[in-house]
Write a structure and sequence with these properties.
Number of domains: 2
CATH topology of the largest domain: CBS-domain
Order of helices and strands: EEEHEHHEEHH
Radius of gyration: 22 Å
Shape: elongated
Largest sheet: 2 strands, antiparallel
Number of helices: 5
Oligomer: single chain
CATH architecture of the largest domain: Roll
Strand order of the largest sheet: 1-2
CATH class of the largest domain: Alpha Beta
CATH superfamily of the largest domain: CBS-domain
Helix content: 25-40%
């Protein structure tokens, strides 16, 4: 049994906003809300946990705008985990833990990974060392899907950044090297 009263709640039908002059500037307004003791949302918007509404793509968009998307449960648990992993890998608009391939993988595998994750490029690692990147442009006109990644990847003139870079710093690097 609860030891504290349940707070009141409203739906859109319960409220009516009347347009009027206000001396409060939009930049002075805080619409953030505390979802849980550990999670604060910059915008009080949560997408529905429905199969027609929220999967990784919507959850990523919601997070980038300051809200949250709840992945629906109308799929096998393994598929739910994959959707959540996609969201986690897309944190803050930067991919923190990217999907990677090795130079010896077939380009067929890369194409499947890019299709599954809806991405256009994959870093190529040998151990922990970056060797290059393979993008949809590298694969566009290939017909031999048994070629190795090393045969088609871009390995020169790569623009990299240190771990821990901020979103603003990364934007500046991208702008400088456009």
């Amino acid at each position: 049994m609860l030891n504290h009263p349940i707070p009141g709640a409203y739906t859109f039908d319960d409220l009516l906003l009347v347009p009027a002059f206000s001396g409060i500037l939009p930049t002075e307004v805080d619409i953030s809300t505390q979802l849980t003791p550990e999670i604060r949302l910059n915008i009080p918007i949560i997408s529905a946990a429905m199969d027609t509404v929220t999967e990784a793509r919507t959850a990523i968009s919601m997070a980038r705008e300051g809200g949250i998307g709840i992945i629906h449960k109308n799929m096998p648990v393994k598929a739910q985990v994959k959707e959540i992993e996609k969201v986690k890998k897309s944190e803050s608009g930067m991919i923190i833990d990217p999907v990677t391939v090795t130079p010896d993988q077939r380009i067929w595998d890369v194409q499947q990974i890019m299709r599954e994750y809806k991405i256009s490029g994959v870093p190529v690692l040998e151990g922990e060392k970056l060797k290059g990147i393979v993008t949809n442009r590298d694969l566009r006109f290939e017909t031999n899907w048994d070629l190795k990644v090393r045969d088609v990847m871009t390995s020169e003139n790569l623009i990299t950044a240190p771990v821990g870079i901020t979103l603003e710093e990364s934007k500046a690097i991208l702008h400088r090297h456009r």
